[in-house]
Design goal:
Number of helices: 30
Strand content: 15-25%
Distance between the termini: 61 Å
CATH superfamily of the largest domain: Hypothetical protein af1432
Helix content: 40-55%
Bound molecules: manganese (II) ion
Structural class: alpha+beta
C-alpha cells in the first residue's frame, strides 16, 4: 500500500509543482483533522484517513491546489459544525464553491431506477456541479469509498456498487478518465457478482504465463520490424480489466477463450504519422480481421479518446488487438479531462494552452477569455447540459426537459390528463406561476382540479416542448371540432383567393376523395377541414395535389397557373438539398449511390418516407424512369448554394491495385493529411497479386472527392479508383 500520510502528500505535490502552496494545503489539513476529530470510519480508522486518501488520488492526477484543499475539506460541512461561509473565508471563494458543490451532490438520492432515470441522474450531476473539480473530487471520494467497502454490510455493499457502476463509472467514462473508470468498474463487479469476479480472476491467472509469453513473442517481432523501418515506439502488453471481460462473457455469451482482445499490444509513438506507419507494419505482418479496424485518430470518440485499433490474426491462429497512439493521446486516454488540467511547470506556451482550450471547449463552456496556466482550472465551469434542465417529481423521479421549460411542459411530460386538468403549481413547496422557468433540482408538484375544462390557448405560447404543444393541440382538435372545421375552410378559401382559383375548380369530389381523403385517412371532407383548422395538415398539402391534378387535366391552361409557383420560394430541407415546390418535406440522401454536392441529382417521392435523392445516373433511378408508374414520382431537386451547409457526405471508393506492401498505410496517411475522415475500410486480395481496397470517406463536395480520387490514383501500384455505385 502506498504511503498515504500528509507528509507523503506534500512530497507528491512538490514533485510536480515546486511552487505548490504548501501553507494553504497544511491549513486545510489541520482544519479537516480538527473538524473530524473523534469521528471514526466504518473500518474503525480515524476519519481523516478518508479525505487524505481522496487528496492523494487527485495528487496522482497532478491537480491544482484548490482541488486538493477541496478534497481535504470535502466532508467537513456535511459532517461537522464547520460551514461553507467558514471555508470561503479561510480558503477563498473558489474552494467554497467546490466544497459547496460536493456537499450538494451528496444529497442527490440514488434509488434503483430505470435506465432513462439513471441517465438523467448522471446529467443532473454534471449540470449541478458547475465546476468540473467538484466531479473530480466526487469521483476520487467514491473511488476511496469503494476501495474500503469491505467494512460495510452486504446490502450496503451491493447498493453502493450498483450506484458506482451506473452513475460514477459512467461519468468517469464520459470525462475520458479511463483509469479511474476501470478501477471503479472492477471494484463494483467484485461486490455485485463475486462468483463471476473470482472465475475471471482465476482463469486469467491460470493463463497468465502462457499469455505473457505469447505477447512477448509478438512484441519481439514488432521491435525487430520497427527498428528496420526506423520508428521509435514504446511497446507493451495490455491487461484487459475484469469488468470488460465480464461484460463480453455475459452480455455476448462468450467464453473467456472467445474474447479477442484478451491478448493486446499497445504501441506508443512520437507522432501521428508514426501511428499510421505502425499500423501499416502490423497489417503487413499479420492478416487483419475484417471489420475490426477503427480509426479514432481521424474520428475521436466523444470523450476525445484517440487511437488506432485493429485486430489481427496472430501466430497459432490466436487473434490479438493492437492499439496505436501518440504519447499525448495516451495521457488523455488514461486521465481524460484531468490530463488537461495537470499542473505544468512553467512550460505552457500559448499554443499549448490554445490546444487545451479547444479540447475542453467542445464539452465545457469557458467563462473567462484570458487564462494562464495558474488560474486555468479556476475559470473553467461545466456547462455540458446548458440546454437541458432536470427537475424532480414529488416522488423523486427525475424529469429531463429543455432549458427554459415551464410547469406546463412538466405537467404534460408526466401525463396529458394531468396537463389538461392543471389548476396551479408548487415549486419547492411554494406556489409558482405557470410561466415559471424551471431550475435544476426543483421539486415540482402539479395541482389538478376536476373543475378545469382543459388547457388554455395561451399555454401554447408559454410551453417550450413539442410534447406539450402537441398534446394541447390534440385536446383542441377533439374538443373544438366545429370551430376547427370553420377555421380550416376559411384558411383554404383564403389561399384559393390568393392564387386566383375557385373552390369548384379544384375541389372536384372524385379528386378530393382520391388525392386527399384516402391518402391521409379521413372519412369525410369535414375531417379534412378540421385537420387543417387545428394545424395537423397544412393548406399547402391539400392544395398541391389538387393543383397538380388540375394541371394534368388542363395542360393548356398552364399559363393560368404560373402565379402559383412563381412566388414560391425554394426552401432548404436541411441536408443541403432544395426540393422544387415542396416545403418542409423529409429529404434524405439515398444509400444506394451516396450523392455528393456537384453530382447531377434527381428526387424520388417515396411512399411515406419523403423524397430520397439519387444521382441522376443511379441504376435504380434509371430503372424507375422506365416504369410508367415511376415517372410521375421523380421530382427536380437541386444542391443548395455552397457555403450554406458544410454538411458531410459519405462516398465509397474502390481502389484496385497491385498487392504491395505499405499501400494501406499510405492511403490512410494521405487521408489523414487531407483531414478527410475515414469511416470504413476493408480489403480483399486475390491470388493473382491484386488488391481491392474499399474505403468509405466523408467529403463535403464533389470537387473534394475528385481531388481524393486523383491523389489515390497517383499512388504507386494503383491502377484504378472508382466510385461504388449501387
Ligand atoms: Mn467523502
Amino acid at each position: 500500500m502506498n504511503d498515504r500520510t500528509f507528509e507523503a502528500l506534500v512530497k507528491k505535490v512538490q514533485s510536480y509543482n515546486p511552487k505548490f502552496d504548501i501553507e494553504k494545503l497544511t491549513r486545510a489539513y489541520e482544519l479537516a483533522e480538527s473538524a473530524h476529530e473523534g469521528q471514526l470510519r466504518n473500518t474503525g480508522e480515524p476519519y481523516i484517513i478518508h479525505p487524505l486518501a481522496v487528496a492523494h488520488i487527485l495528487a496522482d492526477l497532478e491537480l491544482d491546489c484548490d482541488s486538493l484543499v477541496g478534497a481535504l475539506l470535502h466532508d467537513v460541512v456535511e459532517d461537522t459544525d464547520c460551514t461553507i461561509a467558514d471555508v470561503s473565508r479561510e480558503f477563498g471563494d473558489s474552494v467554497g464553491i467546490i466544497v459547496n458543490g460536493v456537499t450538494k451532490l451528496s444529497k442527490i438520492q440514488y434509488t434503483n431506477k430505470e435506465e432513462q432515470q439513471i441517465e438523467n441522474l448522471r446529467k443532473m450531476f454534471l449540470a449541478m456541479a458547475k465546476d468540473i473539480r467538484v466531479i473530480l473530487i466526487k469521483l476520487a471520494d467514491r473511488l476511496h469509498n469503494m476501495r474500503t467497502l469491505k467494512a460495510m454490510s452486504e446490502d450496503k455493499q451491493r447498493e453502493k456498487a450498483r450506484e458506482t457502476l451506473e452513475v460514477y463509472a459512467a461519468l468517469a467514462h464520459r470525462l475520458g478518465m479511463s483509469k479511474i473508470k476501470w478501477e471503479l468498474e472492477d471494484l463494483s463487479l467484485r461486490y455485485l457478482d463475486p462468483v463471476a469476479y473470482k472465475e475471471i480472476a482465476d482463469s486469467i491467472s491460470q493463463k497468465r504465463k502462457e499469455r505473457e509469453q505469447y505477447i512477448e513473442d509478438i512484441i519481439a517481432t514488432f521491435r525487430q520490424k520497427l527498428s528496420e523501418i526506423g520508428i521509435q515506439a514504446q511497446l507493451m502488453g495490455r491487461a484487459k480489466h475484469f469488468y470488460s471481460i465480464f461484460r463480453k462473457m455475459y452480455a455476448q455469451n462468450k467464453s473467456i477463450d472467445e474474447i479477442y482482445d484478451l491478448f493486446a499490444v499497445r504501441a506508443i509513438v512520437d507522432s501521428v504519422k508514426d501511428c499510421y506507419a505502425v499500423l501499416g507494419m502490423v497489417h503487413e505482418l499479420y492478416y487483419p480481421i475484417p471489420g475490426r479496424f477503427k480509426d479514432y485518430i481521424a474520428m475521436p470518440k466523444p470523450n476525445m479518446y484517440q487511437s488506432l485499433h485493429t485486430t489481427v490474426m496472430g501466430p497459432n491462429g490466436i487473434p490479438f488487438e493492437v492499439q496505436i497512439r501518440t504519447k499525448e493521446m495516451h495521457k488523455i486516454a488514461e486521465f481524460g479531462i484531468a490530463a488537461h488540467w495537470k499542473y505544468k511547470e512553467g512550460t505552457s506556451g500559448q499554443s499549448d494552452m490554445d490546444e487545451k482550450l479547444e479540447w475542453i471547449g467542445k464539452i465545457l463552456e469557458i467563462q473567462n477569455e484570458a487564462v494562464d496556466s495558474d488560474d486555468f482550472m479556476r475559470t473553467l465551469k461545466i456547462d455540458l447540459f446548458a440546454d437541458e434542465v432536470f427537475v424532480f417529481t414529488p416522488k423523486g423521479d427525475v424529469i429531463n426537459l429543455p432549458a427554459g421549460s415551464t410547469p406546463i411542459d412538466f405537467a404534460f411530460a408526466i401525463h396529458s390528463a394531468i396537463g389538461c386538468r392543471m389548476a396551479g403549481v408548487r415549486v419547492n413547496g411554494k406556489i409558482a406561476t405557470l410561466d415559471y422557468n424551471l431550475q435544476n433540482g426543483d421539486i415540482v408538484e402539479i395541482m389538478t382540479s376536476s373543475a378545469m375544462h382543459g388547457p388554455s390557448r395561451d399555454w401554447l405560447k408559454i410551453c417550450k416542448t413539442s410534447q406539450a404543444r402537441t398534446k394541447i393541440n390534440q385536446w383542441f382538435k377533439k374538443e373544438r371540432r366545429e370551430e376547427n372545421i370553420l377555421r380550416g375552410r376559411d384558411m383554404i378559401d383564403k389561399e384559393l383567393k390568393r392564387i386566383g382559383m375557385s373552390h369548384s375548380q379544384l375541389f372536384k369530389p372524385e379528386w378530393v376523395e382520391k388525392l386527399v381523403l384516402k391518402k391521409y385517412g379521413f372519412h369525410t371532407e369535414d375531417d379534412m377541414y378540421a385537420a387543417v383548422g387545428f394545424g395537423g395538415l397544412t393548406v399547402n398539402k391539400v392544395l398541391s395535389r389538387l393543383k397538380e391534378e388540375y394541371r394534368l387535366t388542363h395542360k393548356n391552361a398552364e399559363a393560368a397557373l404560373v402565379p402559383l409557383t412563381s412566388n414560391k420560394k425554394k426552401k432548404s430541407s436541411g441536408c443541403g438539398i432544395v426540393v422544387e415546390d415542396i416545403e418542409n418535406c423529409l429529404v434524405r440522401l439515398s444509400r444506394c449511390c451516396n450523392p455528393v454536392p456537384g453530382d447531377n441529382i434527381v428526387g424520388y417521392i417515396t411512399r411515406g418516407r419523403g423524397v430520397s435523392v439519387h444521382r441522376a445516373d443511379c441504376p435504380n433511378i434509371k430503372a424507375e424512369e422506365k416504369l410508367e408508374a415511376g415517372a410521375g414520382r421523380l421530382i427536380q431537386v437541386y444542391w443548395e448554394e455552397a457555403g450554406a451547409g458544410g454538411s458531410a457526405y459519405l462516398a465509397e471508393l474502390q481502389i484496385a491495385s497491385y498487392d504491395r506492401q505499405g499501400l494501406l498505410a499510405e492511403i490512410t496517411g494521405m487521408l489523414y493529411e487531407m483531414k478527410i475522415p475515414l469511416s470504413a475500410v476493408h480489403t480483399k486480395t486475390t491470388k493473382d497479386q491484386m488488391a481491392y481496397i474499399y474505403i468509405t470517406i466523408e467529403v463535403n463536395s464533389k470537387e473534394q472527392l475528385e481531388i481524393v480520387v486523383k491523389k489515390l490514383s497517383n499512388l504507386g501500384g494503383v491502377f484504378e479508383v472508382t466510385r461504388s455505385n449501387a
